[in-house]
């Protein structure tokens, strides 16, 4: 299941509105097929793994991070049916699919065909891996990660706005990898206009993983309305060709954090600045916090967050749980999840 | 030597202007004497350990964290002479004493008496343990630790000043233990007047370790001048009797960070607030930073630091080196040392 989870990560940020599932098929102790949801959402992980395994699927065990789907679509048959047809003997599932078209039905269809099934294996890890899909199912909006890069005293820039560089190259590379795991990146209009951030993925081999660029602006600069899709909305999770580093036409403009429900993205990374971060926190729309900290003091600089509407300290406690932390050169990254 | 270092910690914050040394005497594989510099600076660690060992000092090995002193004083004989007279066979020293009255002379006197000597054993740990003494020798001022207790976004209070409680009980107990290791605690006048902090050690059994209270105030409220000593300055490292929680007469008032050179203390803890912390950083007078961080976000609160005079980010890097970090309940403490 660990291998299946790792495979599922390959699709993260590129499969919305489908979940980024991973799948491994084992026959007689050997891996005979591996699959992960492809960009755009199809083929599904199980279909890809079954295709790779071919005849070796017969009598094999399939490990998949999400319950195989039970619904056909114009884009392909149901994975539960594919597994039955391939003669799979046993299916191990990390997490049941909350999509009402599948929820329990996928497992039931397998069991009805005589396939041994098992579920809730590393379910928490699977839920974390496909957080975008689950958040969309539950809350009808993307899963939101807020990124902050601060000094030890919580500043994101000098008083004059200078923020290059607070963190070192290892932390910055990690932040770019994190971008590649999201369908969309959002910044506030102030940051957009002040810093002209490219918001792309500048890692060798991952340039094509650059997410959609989204700009939060209450004043709505585009005449057509709150949300403007890029010219090639089909290329989900990729900046449309020729748009890298550009401005304007290929960006999505939003007038409020609540409008993120309309984004064609299931994993949204909010990158700044302090007022935009605060607006998402105030609206209780942050699911995950990724905090890069450099061992420097700035003093009197730009604080990481504007007003988040906190009125007493007791209310601040118990809202964030440390999930992961590691050293990146002289910096430290910490990942917190909403409790 | 590890045991000697631990014994030396017992005196930390109570031995100024003497170093807080630790000493262990071993004979035939057994500990026969232990000592540490007593409050006020005498007896010295070696004298205490020799007294405990008695006749078992003959032929024994003495481990001590600082070179035995070579100078007599009205308060006692030189430890090097005591070791010779006791018939010690071997002396292992962590660190040579930078005090010119001893520097090298202590070891030479032992060697001249036929005692085997060895030095530079865990020297870095010893230097850290007696940082106050070494800083006084080198810079003619106390060793300064700056304490900050912040949220993840670097706030030390809500916008309205509320700061109870950012950190949890484990972190607060650790902070009180840290107080007990200092001769003096300093806060700014604003913090003093706003919070009426007791600045004492509220840990069972350590109440008597409460340090001197020092208040930084440019406007110098006391008519007699920059520095007013408490009524019982002999009780170094202890709040004078009856003064706990009181205000005024028993506090020391300083007009600037530079005036700390006059304090009868070798370990000074600067506890706040943001302007006072910034004043010490601006004056380049912080040797050690102890940072308590709670997993909360405040947003728009009181930043940890005022202006420290930083004009570009490059100048901020490389100044602090992480020495220690640990989890305290849901909080984290990090200790940085000036590079």
TrEMBL record, chains A, B:
Annotated GO biological process: riboflavin biosynthetic process
Cofactors: Zn(2+)
Keyword match Zinc: yes
Assigned protein family: In the N-terminal section; belongs to the cytidine and deoxycytidylate deaminase family.
Residue ranges annotated for the CMP/dCMP-type deaminase domain, each copy included: 1-118
Keywords, ordered alphabetically: Hydrolase, Metal-binding, Multifunctional enzyme, NADP, Oxidoreductase, Riboflavin biosynthesis, Zinc
Binding site for substrate: 163, 179, 202, 271
Binding-site positions, NADP(+): 149, 165, 191, 195, 199, 273-279
Keyword Oxidoreductase appears in the UniProt entry: yes
Protein's name in the database: Riboflavin biosynthesis protein RibD
EC number(s) on file: 3.5.4.26, 1.1.1.193
Catalytic reaction annotation: 2,5-diamino-6-hydroxy-4-(5-phosphoribosylamino)-pyrimidine + H2O + H(+) = 5-amino-6-(5-phospho-D-ribosylamino)uracil + NH4(+); 5-amino-6-(5-phospho-D-ribitylamino)uracil + NADP(+) = 5-amino-6-(5-phospho-D-ribosylamino)uracil + NADPH + H(+)
Amino acids binding Zn(2+): 44, 69, 79
Coiled-coil stretches noted in the UniProt entry, renumbered to this chain: none
Role description: Converts 2,5-diamino-6-(ribosylamino)-4(3h)-pyrimidinone 5'-phosphate into 5-amino-6-(ribosylamino)-2,4(1h,3h)-pyrimidinedione 5'-phosphate.
Cofactor binding comment, as recorded: Binds 1 zinc ion.
């Amino acid at each position: 299941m660990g291998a299946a989870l790792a495979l599922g990560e390959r699709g993260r940020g590129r499969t919305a509105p489908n979940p980024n599932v991973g799948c491994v098929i084992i026959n007689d102790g050997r891996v005979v097929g591996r699959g992960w949801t492809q960009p755009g959402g199809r083929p599904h992980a199980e279909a890809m793994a079954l295709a790779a395994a071919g005849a070796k699927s017969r009598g094999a065990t399939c490990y998949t991070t999400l319950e195989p789907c039970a619904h056909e679509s114009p884009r392909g048959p149901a994975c539960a049916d594919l597994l039955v047809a391939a003669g799979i003997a046993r299916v191990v599932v990390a997490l049941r699919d909350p999509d009402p078209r599948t929820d329990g039905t996928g497992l039931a269809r397998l069991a009805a065909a005589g396939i041994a099934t098992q579920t809730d294996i590393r379910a928490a890890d699977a839920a974390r891996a496909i957080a975008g899909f689950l958040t969309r199912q539950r809350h009808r909006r993307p899963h939101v990660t807020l990124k902050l890069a601060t000094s030890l005293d919580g500043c994101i820039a000098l008083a004059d706005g200078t923020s290059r560089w607070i963190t070192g190259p290892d932390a910055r590379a990690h932040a770019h990898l994190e971008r590649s795991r999201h369908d969309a990146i959002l910044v506030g209009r102030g940051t957009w206009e002040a810093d002209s951030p490219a918001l792309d993925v500048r890692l060798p081999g991952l340039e094509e993983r650059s997410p959609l660029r989204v700009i939060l602006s209450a004043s709505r600069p585009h005449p057509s309305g709150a949300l403007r899709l890029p010219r090639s909305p089909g290329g989900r999770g990729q900046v449309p060709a020729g748009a890298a580093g550009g401005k304007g036409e290929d960006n999505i403009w939003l007038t409020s954090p609540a409008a993120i429900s309309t984004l064609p993205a299931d994993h949204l990374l909010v990158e700044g600045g302090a007022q935009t971060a605060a607006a998402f926190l105030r609206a209780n729309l942050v699911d995950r916090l990724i905090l890069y900290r450099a061992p420097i003091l700035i003093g009197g600089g730009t604080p990481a967050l504007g007003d988040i509407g906190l009125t007493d300290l007791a209310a601040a406690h118990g809202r964030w749980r440390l999930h992961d932390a590691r050293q990146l050169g002289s910096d430290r990254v910490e990942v917190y999840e909403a409790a």
